[in-house]
């Protein structure tokens, strides 16, 4: 006769028969992107929460403001490059990204890694006093004065503030990061069709998650953020060009190679 074990197997078969295969695929895509995000998030959310009232003192802020423009740019380029390296690792752990050809992986990272860093910034942002986790403590815009591009800094902080207002869960943030990265509109893609297919999967995974969370309305707010991200990254590139014109040797010999490769 049939044992209980066999019955269970039959039920499982029946279950998977009821769900369309594509739904299981979407669940898998969700799970792997969320895992990739968690494994490469640089700082855990609880860690950042615990530190959120650890501010730089007046003297410390003054010390940053007294650095030369040159020195402060070098320092920020270094911190940014660290953050970008975690984003590269995030990308490499997403199956849909890993399966793309090397050219397209590089194109997507060149265009999207800074955007993902800015999405991640909202995790490290305290909206109650408009500060961001930088170099071990929380810093306001004024700390970055010596960079000489307070318009960029203000715009970046405003963006972090507005993204925080959406109160994304870690899962939603992970999927939104993947969506920002796997963008089939980037120029110079060799296999655009494959990137499009990978993107469709991420889109499905995101809308599936938002639906499950009863937050379908978030999707169009997130798509609005994509264009802001693009303009912020253009502004970053523009500021870098402006800085390089004045200090070509600093960029050439003292900036991290990865930073130059991606942005210069
Ligand atoms: C983003 C989330 C990462 C940790 C992290 C590291 C460096 C931070 C970055 C976050 C946010 C943006 C940041 C950056 C260092 C300098 C940069 C504060 C928190 C500001 C906006 C200055 C940009 C300067 C360029 C013009 C060089 O997990």
Strand content: under 5%
Largest sheet: 3 strands, antiparallel
Q: Give the CA-CA distance, first to last residue.
A: 72 Å
Number of helical elements:
13
Rg computed from alpha carbons, rounded to a whole number of angstroms: 21 Å
**What strand line-up does the widest sheet have?**
1-2-3
Strand and helix order:
HHHHHHHEEEHHHHHH
The stretches of 5 or more residues where confidence is low (pLDDT under 50) are 1-16
Kindly state the number of beta strands: 3
Small-molecule components bound? cholesterol
Mean pLDDT: 92
So what's the overall shape?
globular
User: Structural class given helices, strands, pairing?
Assistant: mainly alpha
Instruction: Give the fraction of residues assigned to helices.
Output: over 70%
């Amino acid at each position: 006769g049939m044992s209980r074990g066999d019955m269970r197997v039959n039920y499982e078969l029946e279950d998977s028969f009821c769900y369309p295969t594509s739904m299981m695929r979407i669940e898998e895509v969700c799970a792997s992107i969320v895992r990739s995000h968690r494994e490469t998030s640089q700082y855990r959310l609880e860690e950042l929460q615990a530190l959120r009232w650890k501010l730089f003192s007046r003297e410390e802020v003054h010390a940053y403001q007294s650095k030369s423009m040159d020195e402060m740019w070098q320092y920020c380029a270094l911190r940014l490059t660290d953050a970008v390296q975690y984003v590269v690792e995030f990308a490499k752990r997403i199956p849909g990204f890993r399966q793309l050809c090397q050219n397209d992986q590089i194109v997507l990272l060149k265009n999207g890694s800074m955007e993902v860093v800015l999405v991640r910034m909202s995790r490290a942002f305290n909206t109650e006093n408009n500060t961001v986790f930088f170099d071990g403590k929380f810093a306001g815009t004024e700390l970055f004065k010596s960079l000489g591009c307070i318009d960029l800094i203000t715009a970046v902080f405003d963006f972090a503030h507005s993204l925080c207002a959406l109160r994304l869960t870690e899962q939603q943030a992970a999927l939104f990061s993947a969506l920002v990265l796997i963008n089939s509109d980037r120029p110079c893609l060799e296999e655009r069709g494959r990137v499009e297919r990978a993107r469709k999967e991420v889109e499905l995974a995101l809308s599936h998650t938002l639906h499950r969370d009863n937050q379908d309305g978030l999707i169009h707010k997130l798509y609005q953020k994509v264009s802001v991200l693009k303009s912020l990254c253009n502004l970053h590139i523009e500021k870098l060009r402006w800085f390089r014109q004045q200090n070509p040797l600093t960029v050439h010999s003292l900036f991290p190679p990865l930073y130059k490769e991606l942005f210069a």
